[in-house]
Each structure stands twice: as structure tokens, then as C-alpha cells.
UniProtKB/TrEMBL annotation:
GO cellular component: a single term: endomembrane system
Signal sequence interval, chain numbering: none
Alphabetical list of Gene3D superfamilies matching this protein: 1.20.120.1630
Keywords, ordered alphabetically: Membrane, Methyltransferase, Transferase, Transmembrane, Transmembrane helix
Compartments reported by the entry: Endomembrane system
InterPro entries recorded: Phopholipid_MeTrfase
Gene Ontology biological process terms in this record: methylation
The keyword Methyltransferase appears for this protein: yes
Keyword Protease attributed: no
Protein name from the UniProt record: Isoprenylcysteine carboxylmethyltransferase family protein
A molecular-function term among this protein's GO annotations: methyltransferase activity
Membrane topology, as annotated: Multi-pass membrane protein
Entries under Pfam families matching the protein: PEMT (PF04191)
Length: 171
């Protein structure tokens, strides 16, 4: 029953925030208008859709890792242990990274420089949230385990190979 609750909360939270900031706000700002010529539009749309699809992969994978760990990405319903599986072995912020890739895909689909600016602003807000809220919160909660993880796994550019905690001192 608890797992079902976590799945529903995670899916609802992801769809609400992703839908709002990944769809509704860009549409409202007028970034969802194709600006390419007909010759470029098809190729840009195909490449942009590939980026959107690729961006969704780490987002869904990260949500699944939270559910498997017994929680959700929502701070009030976070798992009891540090999530360092799946995409979190490559990058500390796979949801943010995936979201930025989705936004870049949209910028390409629509040929929108405004959407590129929106992506930069989204990254800046995400970076501030990570730096001033998430990292201190995780450091307080998980101490040395988080420090070890933070030192080994980059925040924004994924590692080429998955990180594995030290066998003698597992996280």
C-alpha cells in the first residue's frame, strides 16, 4: 500500500511540476510557435523530439529509484536512505538534467531563442535550489555518506561510468 502511495505521489508531483514548468509556462510565454522555415522544421522537430525523449529517461529513472528506496522526490516524503542507484550513480541531479534536456529539445522543435533563455533561467534556478537547499539538507541528513557521494558524483555533467560506493565503507 505504501509503495502505491509513493508511485501516485511521485507521478502526480512529476506531472504537475513538469507539466507546469515544462509545458504550460513555455506555451504561455509564446515559446511554442514554430519559427523554422519549412526546410529546417522537420529535421529540427525530429532532433528536438529525440532530445525530449532522451531527457525523459533520467527523469523517469530517478523517480523509480526514489520509489524503490521507499520514498518520493518530494522533500516531505523522501526515502529513509540516500538514493544512489540508477541514474544517481552517474549524476547527482538527474531530474534537473533530464528536465533541461527536455527544454533544449523544445527550443529545437520550435526554433525558439526565448526557449533557450527559459532553459538557462531554469538551470539557474535549479542550480540555486541544489546549492542552497538540497545539498545542505542532504548533508545534514546523511552526513559522511552524502559527502562521499557528493565528492564522487558530479552535479550536472554525468560520469561516463557508474559510481560504486567503497565496499569497505558503503553508503
Amino acid at each position: 500500500m505504501r509503495r502505491r502511495r509513493e508511485v501516485i505521489l511521485s507521478a502526480g508531483w512529476g506531472l504537475a511540476l513538469g507539466g507546469m514548468f515544462g509545458c504550460l509556462v513555455p506555451w504561455w510565454l509564446g515559446y511554442w510557435q514554430v519559427r523554422w522555415s519549412a526546410e529546417i522544421a522537420l529535421w529540427a522537430a525530429v532532433l528536438g523530439m529525440v532530445l525530449v525523449g532522451l531527457g525523459l529517461v533520467p527523469i523517469v529513472g530517478a523517480f523509480a529509484a526514489f520509489v524503490r528506496a521507499g520514498g518520493t522526490p518530494i522533500p516531505a516524503a523522501s526515502p529513509p536512505r540516500l538514493v544512489i542507484t540508477g541514474w544517481y550513480r552517474y549524476v547527482r541531479n538527474p531530474i534537473y538534467v533530464g528536465f533541461l534536456i527536455v527544454l533544449l529539445g523544445q527550443a529545437l522543435i520550435f526554433g525558439s531563442t526565448g526557449m533557450l533563455g527559459y532553459t538557462a533561467v531554469a538551470w539557474g534556478i535549479g542550480a540555486l535550489a541544489v546549492r542552497y537547499y538540497e545539498q545542505p539538507r542532504l548533508a545534514r541528513r546523511f552526513g559522511t555518506a552524502y559527502a562521499q557521494y557528493r565528492n564522487a558524483v558530479p552535479a550536472w555533467i554525468p560520469r561516463l561510468h557508474p559510481w560504486r560506493p567503497d565496499r569497505k565503507n558503503p553508503v
